[in-house]
Write a structure and sequence with these properties.
Layout (H helix, E strand, L loop, with lengths): L7 E6 L4 E13 L1 E10 L4 E3 L4 E2 L2 H9 L3 E2 L7 E3 L8 E10 L3 H15 L30 E2 L4 E5 L5 E13 L2 E10 L3 E4 L6 E2 H10 L2 E2 L8 E3 L3 E10 L3 H15 L5 H14 L3 H12 L3 H8 L2 H8 L14
Parallel strand pairs: 12-16
Antiparallel strand pairs: 1-2, 1-10, 2-3, 2-6, 3-4, 5-9, 7-8, 8-17, 10-11, 11-12, 11-15, 12-13, 13-14, 16-17
Helix pairs in contact: 1-2, 5-6
Length: about 325
Amino acid sequence: MAPQQLSWSIERHERKATLRGRSRAIFLRHQLPQFHRIDVYSDGLIKYGIGTQGYDFGSFVKAVHRGAVSTSLGKNDILLFEERLYGLGSCQVDEFRPLTTPDDLIGWGRDTIDELNPDATDLLDFKGVEYEDADPRHKGERRFRTVYAAGAQFVRYDDAGDITRGEPYRVVVHENGEWRIADWMIYADGSSQLGPTGAVVRFRDIVAHVRAGRVTSSVLDGQWINMDGLGLLKPKRASWWVSPDGLVAEAEDILTRVQGQEGVVSRCLKALRAHMGNPSAQTLDALRAAYDVIPTHMREPCLGRDEYAVRSALGLPRVDHTDNDYN
């Protein structure tokens, strides 16, 4: 299968160049397995995991072989459905049927680099050396050989070569009696797309699908879920954290931010600073309004320690977890 049929177009903006790439779903084993993404670029740099580290192709292959980057899950694994703290939720794996092999994933990475850089010009290559030279000050400690990698910018190219920025949002799609987890790509021009092969439609069209239950944030117990083409998951003891209303609210916030405007979290923090600097009934009302529009599942993870300050100022009781345990 060609790379573009599995993945999204991305760009990485470095100081001297813009590098094209492709992004797709993987499972990343970092303590608990996570449903994550892997980004492969034209210069051979491959990025996965949390942070700014980029690896070469040889290191990626070794990571796949040892299972750190994976296409499957084991029985009773505890899976996080998202790399974000406030993603869709988590579950225990009852059964998993893979649709993609490790060799498929490695082949996709190789094909993607060849597609984007057919002349293999200036590829990142650590010559098979996965670890940096040992530091004598820290005996027994080995560091992976990496380079700095800027974050991915999701984009859509039109026939004229013009670029539209986007941002993915993982959702559940219920269609023709089947369940799948896929990316809802939200573009700056107000259009949207469900999965890389989905039709480009208006943002509000997919919001309507949410209202109708065809796009949602949870799956009924006992159902098989297609994990973005990696395999079929049958979960047990699933915990879903996002309500349908919360899903729409976060998607609307993503649209606002991808269009270059201020998001709900930033507005709330600005209102908090204004109130703490000059407390008044007016600043308190502004803080309350700003806090109220943040989706419940985003409050504690996105505001962090400031969430306690907000709730204290508003006279609300302290909460340990504000995830909307929707299930």
